[in-house]
Amino acid sequence: MKTEINHMHNLNVWELVEAPDNSKIIKNKWVYTRKRKSNNEIVFRARLVATGYQQRQFIDYDELYSPTLDIDSLRFLISIGLKRKMNIYTADVTTAYLHADIDKTIFMKQPDGFDDKSGRVCKLKKSIYGLKQSGRMWNEKISQFLNDCDLHTARCNTTIFFNKDLSLIVGVYVDDLILISKNDKIFDEFINKFQSKSNIQLKITKSLDKFLNIEVKYDKSNSIYFSMKDKIIKLANSVGINKENSQMIPIRRSKLLEKDLDQPLFLDINLYQSIIGQISYIARIVRPDVIFAINQLSRFNNEPRLTHFKYALQLVQYLFNTRNLSLKYSSLNYHDNIVGFSDSDFANDVYERRSISGIAIFHNNNLISWKSNMQGESASSVNSAEIFSAFETSILIETFYRIMIEFKIDTKNHKLYSDSAAVIRYSKYGPVTPKTKNLDAKIFNLRDKVIQKNIVAQHVKTEFNIADQFTKFLPKDKFLELRKKLNLVYL
């Protein structure tokens, strides 16, 4: 606590003043955390946090939105760096928010344990943790510092910064930075310049190490492997699973999950939701092989049946059995084209007859994005469902190639693979007869990308469509075959 207060005094976070008449004085509290470092050392931390729930909109704060680097963009930047044999570093800004100014006049009580009993209050000069606008104020400050270091902000993703010759790329996730540099000299020059201009000291790690709680390993070829083995073990142990068995697919089932209204309710909803939440995070970050299964289970979060809980335990067991699987990002030089796989499963949901879209996006043969989700509207035919999925895939491909355009990476003809002949036909010629306005708009949007040679739609046989595993439960042999194509490997 004393270290935190001393740090705040050094950064001139507040000044003590007499409280103005009729002013609102917000409270604060101490939050205690412990963090395990990569060397298993446990660090204890005390942080002073303002009670932002007492703030009043348009008086104590205005805008709140603060962008952060999304996981798909992180994987994309890593793939770009690996392809170009660049070095990858991480940096952490200690007490980042305290470096950002505040945009409103806010008064706060003196913190417990450090009240001088004068009756004065803290007039904040910096964006202390807990204030509603602190994230946005910090984002503006770090963006300004990076721009001052001659880095451009990507127009299509304001959490990505880069220099003119792409010898340095920086991604910002709140107070964590990923830095991708052509060599150590360029990196060192940037760090010196940044620290000089910002007066911020960075904690630098010359590898990805354990960025954003992802366990990271390297091999001799400098390929990178992502996993969450420790998190999987912790989850499994919490539900009594500590031994392997024969479960080699996520869920032993051939049809979509149903409400099973004839089955008893699973009464511990909090436990069910906790399991689903943890698996969803793991699936989103490092385990695409379970994204379809967990999305099926998450549909019953509000009213799970005993059968759903049993399937959830099957999924935990599968993750435990395969806890050594890691998502590989290769440093080999394939190509810069974005490659997307699209698939759909038509109207097999017996309650709403919604179809499921499955999407897998690759760069340099590295998987950078995957999705498995119910479509936003009910498709009226198999072709419509496939077009909805292909359109969503094309939007994702476009998201990445727009970043490449800003990076001045010259690529065209990014690939979109589908096992639907209708998707290939419509992408080239448009609709033969008018359909619904929404469907026509998606077809024409996809066709425009093809005409502009930004995307090439190509047919792929169903057995080779990587996205097929994101739309349905597959037999074991088929599932394992497609899982390999996700670059999930045992370490």
Automatic annotation (TrEMBL):
Residues 12-251 form the Reverse transcriptase Ty1/copia-type domain. It comes from the Eukaryota. It holds the Pfam family RVT_2. This is Reverse transcriptase Ty1/copia-type domain-containing protein. It comes from Anisodus tanguticus.
